[in-house]
TrEMBL record, chain A:
Residue span, SecDF P1 head subdomain domain: 164-265
Domain Protein export membrane protein SecD/SecF C-terminal: 269-445
Any one biological process term the GO annotation gives: intracellular protein transmembrane transport
InterPro entries attached to this UniProt entry: Acrflvin-R, SecD, SecD/SecF_arch_bac, SecD_1st, SecD_SecF_C, SecD_SecF_C_bact, SecDF_P1_head
Stated name of the protein: Protein translocase subunit SecD
Transmembrane segments annotated in the record for this chain: 289-307, 312-332, 338-359, 380-402, 414-437
Claim: Hydrolase is one of the keywords in the record: no
Taxonomic classification: Bacteria, Candidatus Roizmaniibacteriota
Role noted for this protein: Part of the Sec protein translocase complex. Interacts with the SecYEG preprotein conducting channel. SecDF uses the proton motive force (PMF) to complete protein translocation after the ATP-dependent function of SecA.
Entry annotated with the keyword Membrane: yes
Automatic annotation (TrEMBL), chain B:
Family indicated by similarity: Belongs to the SecD/SecF family. SecF subfamily.
Protein name: Protein-export membrane protein SecF
Gene: secF
Cellular localisation: Cell membrane
GO molecular function, one term: protein-transporting ATPase activity
Ranges annotated as spanning the membrane: 12-31, 124-141, 148-169, 232-249, 255-282
UniProt keyword annotations, A-Z: Cell membrane, Membrane, Protein transport, Translocation, Transmembrane, Transmembrane helix, Transport
SUPFAM superfamilies: Multidrug efflux transporter AcrB transmembrane domain (SSF82866)
Subunit organization: Forms a complex with SecD. Part of the essential Sec protein translocation apparatus which comprises SecA, SecYEG and auxiliary proteins SecDF. Other proteins may also be involved.
GO cellular component term of the entry, any: plasma membrane
Length: 451, 288
């Protein structure tokens, strides 16, 4: 049992270190006859389980400032808009594009309105993504969702003509009345479909539409193209509907994204696409990482000098903290910008907090005359309350800033969310290494002193 | 045991002075807003001979342009400034031509909108207020009473004011710009502040639980004496990190790190001196 446990721990550590390995690191050396010349790379998964292909490469995802990315420039067509509405429309185009890019799963994009002469442009900078073309089509899609019923003049059109030709009357229900669109799977056929849930007004409208069309067809159109024309069985009053069609999962996902983000108020077209280099020089980054290393060394030195043997344990826990956080950053993945790196370096400083709390309590118990091994146990117990409350409040802050339920009135994307995510990872990981790992290490190292 | 609470007046005096200066600075000088908030203009010139960057800087400044960045590669000069109009650009170009005795061709002149919209800022503020409420509720439960939570939050507001105030001073005297990094630094300071306060309050709670509701002054002083080493040691590790980033790190993040340093110092200072003083005052009022 004990050996199994040890094996699992060693295996986990090995996987974490494997994930953390540097990318394309050249190793070249020679021992006697053995010549080693190989490139080290972090773990890449490419498994075939049943019929699903699981592929994942653990890489550090760097932000625009550190790595560069793709620069897309769109020009808006402002000919059909009143001058007084122009600024609102431009701001809203920018926000919608930001939403789409974020739903698409690109974090930390930079999206700006640009005015050059009397031309209004929108630049979209995406940190190193591989699938630029999908991003472009997604950004440019208009996605006007519309619901149509049979018009009163349908008598003129032969009832034998295709059903969507008879659906001529706009019901007035549009994508604006949709609260949320999600990808779902049909419970019988397993095919992907897009589920819609309406706003209160939308639900009322949809209820009325289905009520008066029982037994008839209602068409769901996207950009004037019929996507599905279901026949209404009963009036639907609960404000939900599904769009079926021969979608692939990806198509359904893209449709949901475009419905969610709303239609663009101005038509846009791509006029420029190029790769951009990092905005921060490599020297700038190198300097900061060097500074972080020096800072880390100072923290370790301080801990060891002040807490002696316990300080060595804290240093080990801190090292494990660093490795674990990096592995989590690569797993999620978190896009690291320079501020993110600085935040991470700061969190190293904060991660020793739980250790300091515990050690101070242990010392306190020792001053009261407790033996060391009892002092350790009592000290741990005493420190836990403070650690728990302090970290739960911080996690509360992170939770609210991250806005997991995607509420309208809280930040839905961008740097605040990125910050909250890094904060939560930092706190969670430091809680684990500062308490659980430290306890294990103390037990391991002080086994002999126990009597 | 050291009687920390004896110097309450001194603590409040220090805080009042620091916050007072900061607020004065915010009201009179405000901030330099970075391109993140207000957008900017990008100007690209090609000159017949390479330009000197201090000359470009001088001329742009006489036209009241606030420079974000100047980069000169051979004969191409790229100037990033806060929004300018066409007339100002023309003036800059003609005076450059006159003073550097070169011919300049305008390759690009465009004005870029802000990346951080008003909407995002408002939502961030709403989220911060909600986070405050979250802390208030959680602490009221964990510490069985509103006073602990209120004291912690008031100390956090104190730290918030110190940070935004001193940033305005940095902005006025050293040209620090209000950007997205600053927003991140403020959020970090606020979570650190409460974190630090809870450690001290935990001690006071422990005395109340084990020894009954007694003399709050005595409990507070005892808690402060016992947690002082921990507070200093913990802050020390963070300060080591930040100092090495300021001294050795890249120049782009200097003000960001400096803000974090100010946040750490005020967060460490406010927990024992401000939060605890407020708690003692609140508890005494309740008992009266």
């Amino acid at each position: 049992m004990k050996q199994l446990k040890l094996f699992i721990i060693v295996a986990l550590m090995a996987i974490i270190i494997w994930i953390d390995l540097p990318e394309n690191f050249q190793i070249r050396f020679q021992i006697g006859k053995f010549k080693i010349d190989t490139k080290v790379n972090p773990l890449t998964i490419d498994w075939q389980i049943f019929n699903t292909n699981i592929k994942y490469a653990f890489r550090t995802h760097l932000g625009l400032d550190l790595q560069g990315g793709s620069h897309l420039l769109f020009e808006t067509d402002t000919s059909k808009i009143k001058p007084e509405d122009l600024n609102d429309a431009l701001a809203s185009v920018r926000d919608i594009i930001e939403k789409r890019v974020n739903y698409f799963g690109v974090s930390e994009p930079v999206i700006q309105n640009i005015k050059a002469g009397n031309k209004y442009r929108i630049s979209v900078d995406l940190p190193g993504i591989s699938d630029v073309n999908t991003a472009i089509t997604l950004i440019g899609r208009t996605a006007m969702l519309g619901f149509f019923e049979e018009g009163t003049d349908s008598a003129k059109i032969a009832s034998s003509s295709p059903i969507f030709l008879r659906l001529t009357k706009d019901t007035g229900l549009t994508g604006k009345d949709v609260k949320k669109a999600t990808v779902e799977f049909d419970s019988q056929s397993g095919k992907p479909q897009v589920g819609l849930s309406f706003t209160n007004l939308g639900a009322k409208l949809f209820g009325e539409i289905t009520q008066r069309n029982i037994g008839k067809a209602v068409g769901i159109f996207i950009d004037q193209i019929p996507i599905s024309t279901p026949t209404v069985q009963t009036a639907i009053m609960d404000g939900s509907a599904v769009i079926t069609g021969n979608f692939t999962v990806n198509e359904a996902k893209k449709l949901a994204i475009t419905i969610n983000s709303g239609a663009l108020p101005l038509p846009i077209k791509l006029i420029e696409q190029r790769n951009i280099g990092p905005t921060l020089g490599a020297s700038e980054v190198k300097k900061s990482i060097f500074a972080g290393a020096i800072g880390l060394a100072m923290v370790l030195f301080f801990m060891i000098v002040y807490y002696k043997k316990l300080g060595i344990i804290a240093s080990m826990a801190l090292l494990i903290y660093g490795l674990l956080s990096l592995a989590i950053f690569r797993l999620i993945p978190v896009v690291l910008t320079l501020s993110g790196v600085a935040g991470f370096i700061l969190s190293i400083g904060m991660a020793v907090d739980s250790n300091i709390l515990i050690f101070e309590r242990i010392k306190e118990e020792q001053r009261k005359g407790q033996k060391f091994n009892i002092a350790i146990r009592v000290g741990f117990g005493r420190a836990i309350d403070a650690i728990k409350d302090a970290n739960i409040t911080t996690l509360t802050v992170a939770f609210i800033l991250f806005n997991p339920l995607n509420w309208e009135f809280l930040p839905q994307f961008g740097m605040v969310r990125g910050f909250a995510l890094t904060l939560a990872i930092g706190v969670g990981t430091s809680l684990f290494t500062g308490v659980v790992i430290t306890k294990r290490l103390i037990n391991l190292f002080y086994k002999n002193t126990q009597s | 045991m050291f009687n920390f609470l004896k110097f309450q007046k001194l603590y409040f005096a220090i805080s009042t002075i620091v916050i007072g200066f900061g607020l004065y600075s915010i009201v009179t000088w405000g901030y330099h807003y970075s391109i993140d908030f207000v957008g900017g203009s990008n100007i690209e010139y090609r000159s017949t001979k390479p330009l000197k960057s201090d000359l470009v800087e001088k001329i742009v400044k006489t036209e009241k342009g606030i420079i974000n960045d100047i980069s000169i590669v051979d004969t191409i000069t790229i100037i990033q400034v806060q929004p300018l109009d066409e007339k100002q650009e023309l003036k800059i170009r003609t005076s450059l031509e006159a003073q550097a005795k070169v011919k300049i061709e305008l390759l690009r002149f465009e004005t870029v909108g802000p990346t951080l919209g008003k909407e995002t800022m408002n939502k961030t503020i709403i989220a911060s207020i909600l986070a405050l409420m979250g802390i208030l509720i959680y602490m009221s439960f964990a510490f069985k009473g509103l006073n602990f939570a209120l004291a912690a939050i008031l100390a956090m507001v104190h730290d918030f004011l110190v940070v935004i105030g001193s940033y305005s001073l940095l902005s006025h005297y050293f040209g620090a710009q209000l950007d997205t990094l600053f927003v991140t630094a403020v959020l970090t300071t606020m979570s650190f502040s409460v974190h630090d306060t809870i450690v001290i309050f935990d001690k006071i709670r422990e005395y109340i639980n084990t020894e009954g509701r007694g003399n709050i002054d005595y409990y507070a002083n005892r808690a402060l004496t016992e947690t002082m080493v921990r507070s200093l040691n913990n802050s020390m590790t963070i300060v080591f990190m930040l100092l090495s980033l300021i001294l050795l790190g890249g120049s782009m993040i200097k003000f960001f790190v400096l803000t974090l340093l100010i946040g750490t110092i005020t967060g460490t200072y406010s927990s024992p001196f401000i939060a605890t003083s407020i708690l003692v005052w609140l508890e005494k009022r309740k008992n009266r």
